[in-house]
Design goal:
The complex is a heterodimer of chains A (111) and B (113). Chain A is mostly beta strands and 111 residues long. Helix content of chain A is 0%, strand content 55%. Chain A contains no helices and eleven strands. The radius of gyration of chain A is 13 Å and the shape is globular. Chain A starts with a strand and ends with a strand. In chain B, strand 7 and strand 8 form a beta hairpin.
């Protein structure tokens, strides 16, 4: 079945440093979504990427979808303490009928 | 414009009892997903439903677990004869269409004692 892997599992950074999490799928995806879950909270949708090579920005966050539509990345520039949480990617293959979540990257930011 | 409503937020059950978790999707959403999350772990897919139909239950244990999404009323995830290993957070998400933005509820934290 479809597998979605995320690395790293954990990332600890000093406030102001950059952060990147990577998502890799075993199969070609029709789209990929990114979610953020704060500690003790629930996942919140951030963005969806659909096109090969797509790049989208949300303030300090940059999302990329690979040319082969099998990988994606989320990059945060100059992290802040409000960025702490777990970032999940979810890859969809329309033939599979649902999105498959990666295990997430948990970001901690030291002030 | 209410989001996904899950109740109860916290549920404590003794081993062998039944747990019923409810999820009311966003108004107008006909796609509902259930996920299980253990502490410090990711979201594990359990089941995907559309109104009155189970589309994909490949992530749900064959025994003791069942789910429904009736024509009227919330989606229900039912766990019979709960065991300690069922303790987890159960999240429901709804979407307007397949594989579009999913809105998550705040989850039900089940503790089996």
């Amino acid at each position: 079945g479809q597998q979605v892997m995320q690395i790293p599992q954990y990332q600890h950074v000093q406030e102001g440093e950059d952060f990147t999490t990577y998502c890799n799928s075993s199969t070609t995806l029709s789209n990929i979504q990114w979610y953020k879950q704060r500690p003790g909270g629930h996942p919140v949708f951030l963005i969806q990427l659909v096109k090969s090579g797509e790049v989208k920005k949300q303030k300090r966050l940059t999302f990329q979808f690979g040319e082969a539509k099998k990988n994606s990345s989320l990059h945060i520039t100059a992290t802040q303490t409000t960025d702490v949480g777990t970032y999940f990617c979810a890859g969809a293959n329309n033939n599979a009928g649902k999105s498959t979540f990666g295990d997430g990257t948990t970001l901690t930011v030291k002030p | 414009n209410a989001g996904v409503m899950q109740n109860p937020r916290h549920l404590v059950r003794r081993r062998g009892q039944e747990a019923r978790l409810r999820c009311s999707p966003v108004k107008g959403h006909s796609h509902v997903y259930w996920y299980r999350q253990l502490p410090e772990e990711g979201l594990k897919f359990m089941v995907y439903l559309q109104k009155e139909n189970i589309i994909d239950e490949s992530g749900m244990p064959k025994e003791r677990f069942s789910a429904e999404f009736p024509k009227e009323g919330p989606s229900i995830l039912r766990i019979q004869q709960v065991v300690r290993g069922d303790s987890a957070a159960y999240f429901c998400a709804s979407a307007r269409q397949l594989n579009t933005e999913a809105f998550f509820g705040q989850g039900t934290r089940l503790t089996v004692v």
